[in-house]
Amino acid sequence: MARYIVNNYSVENIVSWIKSGEFAIPEMQRPFVWDSTKVRDLIDSLYKGYPVGYIIIWKNPDIKLKDGTLSSGKKIVIDGQQRITALTAAIAGHDVVNQEYKKVRIKISFNPINEIFEVYNPAIGKDSKMIDDISVIFEPGFDSFNFSIEYSKENNVDPSKISKSITNLQAIKANNIGVIELEHSLDIETVTDIFIRINSKGTVLSQADFAMSKISSNEKYGGDIIRKTIDYFCHLKQRPMDIETIMENDRDFCKLDEFDKLKWIARNHDDIYSPDYTDVLRVAFTSQFLRGKLADLVSKLSGRNFETRGYEEQISEESYEKLRNGVMKFVNKTNFDRFIMIVKSAGIIDESLVRSDNALNFGYALYILLRDKGFNADYIETVVRKWIVLSLLTGRYSGSPESMFDFDIKRFDSNEPMEYLHSVELGELSDAYWEHILPSRLNTSVASSPYFKLYLMAQVKEGNHGFLSNHITVQALIENRGDIHHLFPKKYLQKNGLDARGEYNQIANYAYTQSEINIKIKDVAPHVYMKCILDQIKNKVPTIGGIVDMVNLKDNFKQNCIPDDFCNYSIENYRKFLEERRVLMARKIKDFYNGL
């Protein structure tokens, strides 16, 4: 049984639906990302009668109002927004909002002599053969007969030829575009599944994309304002220089309390946590609705009653208010700054130290939940800090993050948070984990491994110095984009037959080291360059680094998890060294976690 119908609608009909608001494509639903040449090509295809693909829409489910009647919602464009926006820009002459949130006009020019379309530029503006902007051709009352006569006189061409071209151009409005209309009775889960399966230029659309489309389609409960709040916050985090442009082009929104409370992010220069709209949605939804699956957000915003399986206006209204509160808590300066402070207190002082955005997302959702519950600041900091690191240690949100978000937030809400944390520690961080599982996970050549990042976080937390450095800390080396070097030099290993990347690039062979120290170490065995260090300790004359005291050297070895016998190691000891260091690194990470 078909769950959709396919109709053909004229371009004129589609443009009129956009103007009337029947199609839910608010100004800010998604910035227009097409290149101007794609707009030109779309118009050219319509002119030549070529197919331009389908538009897929879904009418919101009927919602039960308080008086018992049903309210029909707008039609949400599931796929085809960029094409529709291109049509309204080229034919109706509407401005579009580009990726910098600037309102721009995309003018498509037309040469009626050779019937060629071009994107307008100043040179075209000086060419009498070009019609600068085809939107004038589609304006009510346009006199094509007189236009053809005047154009022909100016360019010395046959007016009948021009008249024919203009008539063909205007006929674009009558061209049909296929519209796939999903049954309005389809449940949210089915529509979400359809949405996710649709590919847009090779990119699979996500549940977050669908949720954002749903949010922005509801102006009655301020969904358009929620959408702009999310978009502008994320955009200004990445491009703070655009704030003046936004204030100029969206003056109405900038008068609202929402903008006043988010604009501070343009002055924030911390890149540890740079959320996109998916992150904001996930945190706001998880913290306020105590759920993890974004498909459930679409259901709640649609008014879904999970018990009766019907749709109710009150649930929709309450859900938009909840979401708004969650978004405002996310963009709140105090909340954001305090959360980043907690993240830094865990040794995460640079974005490169965290590969899992979802570990931070859940951490922020947990922070907001615990603040809502009224726990004191010290308690919140401890729980959130340890939970983030535990999540990284176990890869908790790397597999099915939505299911784990759903599972964890419900238990943090229904249990005493510290008790739930301890129960997870008992199950996930046993002695076997620290003594066997973690060392085995450190057996990798992937420098971006979360376990190596955790080791670096431990070094940062403890204020450790770089290998053979007397004063320069690992934190300073990371913050200044210092280099990771090989304790057994790479070329030394290659000369001795270990030329496979997976052998010489073991993370247990890595250490943050000052470049000048690494240069002096050269490509010799550890026992060779360490003899120079021992000589400088004896002579008190530094040549490699600044360590001239045996106590300092031993302490530096301890800070960098270097085995005591490292000064005597050569190629024969390499594999033994790796095993020893993995154990030492795992112990350091354990001590780091227990000290959080």
What key phrases describe this protein's structure?
single chain; 596 residues; alpha+beta; 3 domains; five-stranded mixed β-sheet; two-stranded antiparallel ribbon; 29 helices; 9% strand
Plain-language structure description:
This is GmrSD restriction endonucleases N-terminal domain-containing protein. Residues 12-214 form the GmrSD restriction endonucleases N-terminal domain. There is one protein chain. This protein has 596 residues and is α+β, with helices and mostly antiparallel strands. The protein folds into three domains: 4-186, no CATH class; 203-425, no CATH class; 438-594, no CATH class. Helices cover 53% and strands 9% of the residues. It is built from 29 helices and 15 strands. The strands form six sheets. The protein has a five-stranded mixed sheet with strand order 1-11-3-6-2, sandwiched between helices. A two-stranded antiparallel ribbon has the order 4-5. A hairpin with a 2-residue loop joins strand 12 (199-200) and strand 13 (203-204). Helix 5 (144-155) crosses helix 6, helix 16 (333-345) crosses helix 17 and helix 22 (450-462) packs across helix 29 (574-594). The chain is globular, with a radius of gyration of 31 Å. The model is unreliable at 199-203 (pLDDT under 50).
